[in-house]
Amino acid sequence: MIKILEKDHLFLIFFLLFGAIGLVGNPIFTGVMGYLILIIGMIDVFRNNNKNGEAHLYMALIGIFELYLRMSKSVAPHEISKYSIIIFSTFGLFFSRKRRLPNALSFLFILLFLPSLVSVDTTADFWFETVMTTVLGPIGLGVLLAYFYQYQLNSIDIQNLCRVLILPISSILVYIQTNTISFDELAEVNFTASNSSLSGNFGPNQVSIMMGIGSGILLYSIFFGIKIFKYRILDYTVLGLCIFRGLLTFSRGGVTVPFIAFALIILLSFIRVRNLQSFKKGIYLVFGAVLFYLVFLLANSLTGSALEKRYSGETGLTEKTGERDVLSGRDQILFIDLQIFADNFLIGVGPGMAKPLRYYYGFSNSVSAHIELSRIFAEHGLLGVFAIIIYIVIIYSKRKRWRTYPNETFFLLFLWWIGFLNSNHNSFRLGITVFFLGIIVARINQNPKYFTTLSKKYFQKDWEEWMNLNQNTKDAAPNKAESDPSKRLETSSTFPR
Fold it and tell me: What is the rounded distance in angstroms from the CA atom of residue 230 to the CA atom of residue 233?
């Protein structure tokens, strides 16, 4: 995995290879591919003892590739990304003990979601599938908190993560393009709701989220100088395609979320860094805004202005009633979940059991959760509230370290914002959302002890200092503060930021 991600030509070859996989779409073939990636990932983690963070790289890869598996109706498990999060995090914990500090709160976080299982109605149809779909997200987040807590990441780790997130995007782009209506038919589109016929005949909300993630990662990499493709023209091309296909899903949340997250990070960057170089990068922000606007105009013209109506909140009844629905009923689901929480205060109604209840509490049909926070309130009760408080406490304990290595820290915050905002309109349906919410507790540290081969090449001077320091500590025993290389290197100003 690391060789593929750290060599430009190999990365481009595999990006095109994943695109070719998107042409197939056979359920058996794609299912085999899903299992194959999982197996290869486990072998890679064992073989390298997770030295280069193979565990979380494969989590991210499967987290994005999961959507393609769902779109192609593969024989792989529907929640394969959440299973992979639990599997890889568990093995990663075993192999990376020296790269992190233990965190007992994360295990308490998991335990708080288990008592509500006694409220599950086991006589309901497909109750087991419903429970697993719902409870795997919080459990996976708890395991991720244990895996990532104080896990040391450096600049090259961030670049590798960006690249692994982009790899399967090519499969999704190609599959959508080959399994949707042609461009000359777009003018006939007059829908004012999410449109599966423009999303590869799959859920437009999930497709737009993946397209948003792809465009967000590329936009961030351009602004902060993270190298994904060797030539920037490829970054801009894939960025434009992700925005275009995301807009055509007519699902607003997934496309707008990364741009909101990016705007928040840019604001934070200007406030925290406040140097001329940071302001000069503002040209990329302007370019990104212009690119988004131009792609929006193109998509809107192809759809006969239906896209503009959608983003203005128009529905099929707007012409008759004049009413607009910007939130698509999610606000009503939120209030209903709070009512269910009030009626089942202690342990909730059980994971997945709020879906049929929402109809009886006033929604138009039996609807799944869209806001993860309100779902936790309704289905896990007060114990779920305690779990959320623990999550906040764990994140808050990291706040002091966010001042160091701002570019890399901003990236973790950027992913967290994407995960948090997506969880408020798509819940935890996608494992990649859980992954983004868990990685926030990682620790940015340019410690050469954890450099990959490419990192050592980029930071040769620091690697040599690290080796000399280790050699000196064998011959002499300085005081504890001086003999801890990680502390000395953490605050060193020689590392690029």
Answer: 9
